[in-house]
Design goal:
Blueprint: E1 2-3, E2 6-7, E3 14-15, E4 19-23, H1 29-36, H2 39-42, H3 54-64, E5 69-75, E6 83-89, E7 95-102, H4 111-124, E8 131-137, H5 141-149, E9 153-162, E10 167-177
Parallel strand pairs: 7-8
Antiparallel strand pairs: 1-2, 3-4, 4-5, 5-6, 6-7, 8-10, 9-10
Helix pairs in contact: 1-3
This protein binds coenzyme A.
Length: 180
Amino acid sequence: MMAGTRNLSDYPDLSTPRLSLRRLATRDAAAIVRIVGQWDVARRLARVPHPYTPDDARFFLEQVAPQEWIWAITRTGADALIGVIGLTPDKRDDRAELGYWLDPDQWGGGLMTEAGQAVLSHAFGPFGLSVVTSSYFEDNPASGRVLAKLGFMETARTMRPCLAMGRDVPSVEVQQPRRA
Ligand SMILES: CC(C)(COP(=O)(O)OP(=O)(O)OC[C@H]1O[C@@H](n2cnc3c(N)ncnc32)[C@H](O)[C@@H]1OP(=O)(O)O)[C@@H](O)C(=O)NCCC(=O)NCCS
């Protein structure tokens, strides 16, 4: 996919006051398994199997990530992956869906809001997207709060599949139009 200044093979690392967002690499597999393998993380995500194996991480790194704009979240000056944030391109060229997860050890410090701000600035800036959407399960108020802090507005309530839970889960759809 390629549109305007955005394509899937060429996008930059981003930085925030506390974080460096860089491309995923094969060396991230163990951290991904350790973090996403935790039920508290997997049950809040749509497309993560549970239990989560090194093969699942390999599939994510080799098959999924190259189709999306995905960054490893690291603390500035450290290489270790502590989370992931990304934009999934939509069929409509000017839209993408925001998704993310963070190591539970790091929750509650404002890190995902900080990472989200950097990714949204890039989405509406250099990528030139018009709309960014996201969604969260109703029983995940922390993510709802992150999205609200980032400026997202609720657009609908639906049922969405959760692979880890093996069923559809009540979800909140949110969206954010291009910034003025
Ligand atoms: C959602 C997640 C990314 C949040 O990351 P984080 O860095 O802790 O987020 P922040 O610290 O920036 O913001 C969290 C906000 O949620 C609030 N919060 C946390 N737990 C909450 C709860 N149970 N009820 C209501 N609000 C809650 C915090 O108080 C904070 O809001 P505040 O700044 O107004 O006080 C992290 O919890 C996570 O990785 N969860 C598992 C995966 C996941 O849910 N991914 C998103 C799927 S849609």
